[in-house]
Structure formats: structure tokens, C-alpha cells
Amino acid sequence: MSKLDPRPSDIKELYSWDVLNSTLQTAFKQPGEKTAVIDLRQFSLTKEEIVTEAESQGYTVTEEYNHYLRFR
């Protein structure tokens, strides 16, 4: 029996709607919190999908730098 676990791969599963929703809900439930920022490279969703759905749910979304979206 080995004393070490196998080396983890560099490939990480990209996040989906569940993680995005949880991230936004957690951020906006914090007292005084008015914004949340995500890194698009961590999600399996396109920028257009995220922006369209977020705006339909009342968020204002702006692009911050490359690959980042800010939700208000």
C-alpha cells in the first residue's frame, strides 16, 4: 500500500450554474455587499449565457478586465 495518494491532475472541472448561483447568493447576502466578481475562465458557461441569465434575474453585469465579470 502506498503512503501517498496519486499526484492530482492539473485538469480541474469547470463550474456551472449551481456554483455561479451559490457564489452570487452568498456575496449579496453579506451585509453591505453590493457587488460580486467572477473569473470566466473558471466556468463552463459562455460570457453571453451568464450575462443574459443574470440580467433577466435583475443583476447588472459589467466586464472588468479580461475574463472577469462584476455583478451589481
Explain what the structure shows.
The structure is a single chain. The relative contact order is 0.18. A 3-stranded antiparallel β-sheet has the order 1-3-2, with helices on one face. 32% of the residues lie in helices and 17% in strands. The termini are far apart. A hairpin with a 3-residue loop joins strand 2 (61-64) and strand 3 (68-71). It is an alpha+beta fold. The model has no long low-confidence stretch (mean pLDDT 93). The chain has helices at 17-29, 47-56, and strands spanning 36-39, 61-64, 68-71.
SSE layout:
Elements: H1 17-29, E1 36-39, H2 47-56, E2 61-64, E3 68-71
Antiparallel strand pairs: 1-3, 2-3
**Number of DSSP helices?**
2
Mean pLDDT across all amino acids: 93
- Which blocks of ≥5 consecutive residues have pLDDT under 50? none
Distance between the termini: 52 Å
What does the largest sheet look like? 3 strands, antiparallel
List its salient traits.
72 residues; alpha+beta; three-stranded antiparallel β-sheet; 2 helices; elongated
Task: Provide a brief overview of the structure.
This protein is α+β, with helices and mostly antiparallel strands.
